[in-house]
From TrEMBL:
Belongs to the class-I pyridine nucleotide-disulfide oxidoreductase family. Disulfide bonds join 46-51. It comes from Gomphillus americanus. This is Glutathione reductase. Signal peptide: none annotated. GO terms for biological process: cell redox homeostasis; cellular response to oxidative stress; glutathione metabolic process. Its cofactor is FAD. Residues 9-335 form the FAD/NAD(P)-binding domain. FAD binds at residues 55, 320. The keyword Calcium does not apply. The gene is GTR1. The active site is at 460 (proton acceptor).
Length: 471
């Protein structure tokens, strides 16, 4: 039977945050006939196996930490049972499922036709979609957006790596592992290591260098690594893994080398090994060769210009599939600006996302926030003589009445440039950093200087006031 054929103005491949934002604006605001395709669950990585369920789990870990510290404030709390991981997981799953439904309803409200299936190109302006029910639909479109995101990567050179899980598998765990190893130094591995540790798992974190979060400022790297070790996370520095195997008892054994064991050793009795070594673009079965010479990077990401144009006319790409700034709000912002440019008329002919000074946070323990250049990046760009750095390290008031062993550090850094001391980088670590950064991000995006910070009256007593009183 020949496939059903559909025609549209705009076809969006990928139902993640960026693709859906673009599709909804194109249809709901500008009236373009739009079709959106998603092969799994609406909302993409962020909603299903990323930011949303991660943050819910981080809240659970934070509650566990608060319960532990409650006695310092005079509360006598006796836990009658351990943390119920399974019950929590099912509530988290139900929340995500509700969000899937909301996303589908929003598409309906904005008159975007939704196809739940897997798409591959059959030409530069046509795709074939194999629907979940087994039927096939052909779609011809005037313009096509690729917003397929990415997927977690398993190491290819480690024997038995398939015995471990990725960040996707983290959200499938029905019970809390008693002993877990995570491999990776990026925000995914660091966040999940912090959550496992706070929720009571014996946690081992394997990193290739002496610190983790190596794209962040050295202050963040060094202090967060130290804090994780203080909290009891076993950080295996300068490590390399060679083999993962499963015993007859179902336990895992990881073979590795690190700075303490240069000749190699094993970590036994593991319930779970999580690979957090990075993500790859979801392009494998798109059949891109059928659209012509579409340019890709060595890692497979789609190359785009500042307007999200690929090298093929009328084919666009945004979000994680491009590998530029892999953050959900970035994809949403880029998607909306693209819809404006394509369908909003002449007034939006130059609409594009400014990728500079994008704030980002890590939901570690403690939280981390950053915007702009790191100190080394600023010195390289402007020169040592044109850069000044303001630092502050202190104990947040919440910990003021606690024993020294309970206190977490808070550290702030402001990197400024030129005689006007324009703020070109802000790096914060401590309680509330994620919420704190949003407002400061607005100021820095507007070009704030150190004097602008100084002129702002402090809110007392807060940690944030330190940023407007730095000396």
């Amino acid at each position: 039977m020949a496939p059903t054929t559909k025609e549209c103005d705009f076809l969006v491949i990928g139902g993640g945050s960026g693709g859906l934002a673009c599709a909804r604006r194109a249809s709901g605001m500008y009236g373009a006939k739009t079709i959106a395709i998603e092969s799994r669950f609406l909302g993409g990585t962020c909603v299903n196996v990323g930011c949303v369920p991660k943050k819910v789990t981080w809240y659970a870990a934070s509650v566990a930490e608060t319960l532990h510290l409650a006695k310092e404030y005079g509360f006598s709390i006796k836990e009658t049972a351990p943390f119920d991981w399974a019950a929590f997981k099912h509530k988290r799953d139900a929340y995500v499922k509700r969000l899937n439904g909301i996303y589908e309803k929003n598409l309906e409200n904005d008159k975007v036709e939704y196809l739940n299936g897997r798409a591959h190109f059959t030409g530069p302006k046509s795709v074939e979609v194999k629907l979940q029910d087994g039927k096939t639909v052909a779609v011809n479109a005037k313009k096509i957006l690729i917003a397929t995101g990415g997927h977690a990567t398993l190491p290819k050179d480690i024997e038995g790596s398939e015995l471990g899980i990725t960040s996707d598998g983290f959200f499938e765990l029905e019970t809390r592992p008693k002993k877990v190893a995570l491999v990776g130094a990026g925000y995914i591995a660091v966040e999940m290591a912090g959550m496992f540790n706070m929720l009571g798992s014996e946690t081992h974190l394997f990193i290739r260098h002496k610190t983790f979060l190596r794209t962040f400022d050295p202050m963040i790297q060094e202090k967060t690594t130290e804090e994780y070790e203080r909290q009891g996370v076993h950080v295996h520095k300068e490590s390399a893994q060679t083999k993962l195997e499963k015993g007859s008892d179902g336990k895992l054994t990881l073979h590795y080398k690190d700075s303490s064991n240069p000749d190699g050793t094993t970590l036994t009795g593991l319930d779970t090994v999580l690979w957090g070594i990075g993500r790859s673009p979801e392009v494998e079965d798109l059949n891109l060769k059928s659209v012509g010479e579409i340019k890709q990077t060595e890692k497979g990401h789609l190359e785009v210009d500042e307007y999200q144009n690929t090298s093929v006319q009328d084919i666009y790409a945004l979000g994680d599939v491009c590998g530029k700034v892999e953050l959900t709000p970035v994809a949403i912002a880029a998607g909306r600006r693209l819809a404006d440019r394509l369908f909003g008329g002449e007034q939006f002919h130059d609409s594009k996302l400014d990728y500079t000074n994008i704030p980002s946070v890590v939901f570690a323990h403690p939280e981390i926030g950053a915007i702009g250049l790191t100190e080394p990046e600023a010195r390289k760009k402007f020169g040592d003589d044109d850069i000044k750095v303001y630092n502050s390290s202190f104990t947040a008031m919440f910990y003021s009445i606690m024993d020294a062993s309970q206190k977490k550090p808070t550290s702030f850094k402001l990197v400024v440039q030129g005689k006007d001391e324009k703020v070109v980088g802000l790096h914060i670590m401590g309680e509330g950093s994620a919420e704190m950064l949003q407002g400061f991000g607005v100021a820095i995006k507007m070009g704030a200087t150190k004097k602008d910070f100084d002129r702002c009256v402090a809110i007392h007593p807060t940690s944030a006031e330190e940023l407007v009183t730095l000396k």
